[in-house]
């Protein structure tokens, strides 16, 4: 299995959970904040994954990658922080039903 295929269920769950919060208050503001958080996480991932790969802490089998890289880090590495930036706030909003967030 390739890493790109492994990402699909995480992305689908993130999309479903995030869309479940569309009618909740401040959805647009939350999406803006999530986008900023995703950008920060992508930058941090780019910096630290490149460092860790460069010093040999881990490698990826090339046959499981798309071949697209940002420095030494495969593109697939960036999907999890992006999903987290949208998924975590959405879960928080859904779990705070009836309470003021």
Automatic annotation (TrEMBL):
<dbReference type="Pfam" id="PF18916">
    <property type="entry name" value="Lycopene_cyc"/>
</dbReference>
<protein>
    <submittedName>
        <fullName>Lycopene cyclase domain-containing protein</fullName>
    </submittedName>
</protein>
<keyword id="KW-1133">Transmembrane helix</keyword>
<feature type="transmembrane region" description="Helical">
    <location>
        <begin position="78"/>
        <end position="95"/>
    </location>
</feature>
<keyword id="KW-0125">Carotenoid biosynthesis</keyword>
<feature type="transmembrane region" description="Helical">
    <location>
        <begin position="35"/>
        <end position="58"/>
    </location>
</feature>
<keyword id="KW-0812">Transmembrane</keyword>
<keyword id="KW-0472">Membrane</keyword>
<feature type="domain" description="Lycopene cyclase">
    <location>
        <begin position="11"/>
        <end position="92"/>
    </location>
</feature>
<dbReference type="InterPro" id="IPR017825">
    <property type="entry name" value="Lycopene_cyclase_dom"/>
</dbReference>
<comment type="pathway">
    <text>Carotenoid biosynthesis.</text>
</comment>
<feature type="transmembrane region" description="Helical">
    <location>
        <begin position="6"/>
        <end position="23"/>
    </location>
</feature>
<keyword id="KW-0413">Isomerase</keyword>
């Amino acid at each position: 299995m390739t890493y790109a295929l492994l990402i699909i269920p995480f992305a689908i769950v993130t999309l479903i959970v995030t869309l479940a919060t569309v009618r909740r208050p401040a959805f647009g503001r939350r999406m803006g904040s999530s986008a900023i958080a995703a950008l920060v996480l992508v930058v941090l991932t780019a910096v630290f994954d490149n460092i860790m790969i460069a010093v040999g802490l881990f490698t990826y089998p090339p046959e499981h990658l798309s071949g697209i890289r940002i420095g030494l880090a495969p593109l697939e590495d960036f999907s999890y922080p992006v999903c987290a930036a949208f998924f975590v706030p959405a879960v928080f909003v859904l779990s705070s039903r009836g309470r003021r967030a």
